[in-house]
Amino acid sequence: MDSSRSAQRAVIQFLRAEEEHASQIYSRMKEVYGEQCHARCTISWWCQRYEAGRVNIKDLAHPGQAHVVTNSATISAVDQLIRQNYQITTREIGVELSISKETMHHIIHKKLGYGKVCAQWVPKHLSENQKTARMGVCLTQQFLH
């Protein structure tokens, strides 16, 4: 049984077209969908929208909603700025590229995998060469002690 939001909205739209009342729709849907059923107030809200003439069951874009800025061009621009100046701040990057703090955080930490150490951006994961070098230093230190 598809219990997605759009599937439930389609059921609400269909039953409302058959002129069923919102409380009847809620009762019928609660039997079918159980715990994953929309709340009664949500079903009433959608019934009102369909009565007012809405035909789309998908969410509409909200005014002021951010468009997708995490494209490859933006990600590479952020990476380039960080590589040019490892001490650059997120605020400076945001001003330079005109993107929000949240988007900046997502790109830097999730997409590029950088973290801030001693006021410098560094990759969170070491490359194989870096791991080998670190292991060599540790072994040398252990041998000295």
From TrEMBL:
Tree of life domain: Eukaryota
InterPro entries per record: Transposase-MT_Hybrid (IPR052709)
The protein's name in its UniProt record: Mos1 transposase HTH domain-containing protein
Lineage: Eukaryota, Metazoa, Ecdysozoa, Arthropoda, Chelicerata
